[in-house]
Amino acid sequence: DQQVKQNSPSLSVQEGRISILNCDYTNSMFDYFLWYKKYPAEGPTFLISISSIKDKNEDGRFTVFLNKSAKHLSLHIVPSQPGDSAVYFCAASASTFNAGNMLTFGGGTRLMVKP
Amino acid sequence: DAMVIQNPRYQVTQFGKPVTLSCSQTLNHNVMYWYQQKSSQAPKLLFHYYDKDFNNEADTPDNFQSRRPNTSFCFLDIRSPGLGDAAMYLCATSKRLGGKNIQYFGAGTRLSVL
Predict the structure, then answer these.
(1) Secondary structure (3-state) at B84
(2) Phi and psi for B83 in degrees, rounded to 5?
């Protein structure tokens, strides 16, 4: 049972345009959400996060939006650059879990930004 | 400046031959994690240490063990690797459990089993 889903395995965008990566979750206990970026042969790198008390968090070209009622979050990259080409993982955690908020990852979306 | 360092980056072992993967961190974080990632799937948590307290995920095979001799180092031991254990193994750290938990990952060790 996948609690965090990224339904688009890949996304292709033109340089300078907006990239929108989507993520859905099913567990209403999740209260913290993160996006990681992964280049080939490297480990995931933390990108941006959002707490469930917010609906938007912005960091430079990256903005994450959270819609709790829809259990949906999205990552916007504006403007997209070729160096943004990577696999993006959405992850969620629940601070109330007894084990102490382990991360649950989605399956990833491969973003390709064309020059 | 690498903060979570995994060695080796690539490891080849034979079916059934024990192998050890290592992870070190310069962040002085309390928590260290081991994940398994196959192909383009989501990373799957195997276990984690909070200081010296070891926590095994329920579905982690007994074939996988871990050691954390000190704050900085953590090892993943695969006692009898099978072909199905070929994967990328990721080490991660976080300052603590609870609250907002950002995990920082190493570059991973890609394990091949012949």
Answers:
(1) helix
(2) -60, -30
CA dist B67 and B31 (Å) reads 13
User: How far is residue B28's CA from residue B91's CA, in Å, rounded to a whole number?
Assistant: 14
pLDDT in tens, A32-47: 999 999 998 888 999 9
pLDDT tens by residue, B42-92:
899 999 999 999 999 888 999 999 999 999 999 999 999 999 999 999 999
**DSSP assignment string, chain A:** --SEE---SEEEEETTS-EEEEEEE--TT--EEEEEEE-TTS--EEEEEEETT-SEEEETTEEEEEETTTTEEEEEESS--GGG-EEEEEEEE-TTSTT----EE---EEEEEE-
Q: Give the position of tokens 């649950």.
A: A104
Interface with chain B: mutation pick from A101, A104, A111, highest number of B CBs within 10 Å = A101
> Does the bond joining B43 to the residue before it have cis omega, within 30 degrees of 0?
no
CA proximity to A41, closest of B109, B21, B92: B109
| Interface residues of chain A, partner chain B, Cβ below 8 Å | 4, 9, 32, 34, 36, 41-46, 49, 51, 87, 89, 93, 95, 99-103, 105-108, 110
Task: Specify the length of chain B in residues.
Answer: 114
Separation in Å, CA B12 to CA A60, A99, B63, B69, B84:
41, 33, 17, 25, 14
Q: What is the percentage of chain A residues whose pLDDT exceeds 90?
A: 79
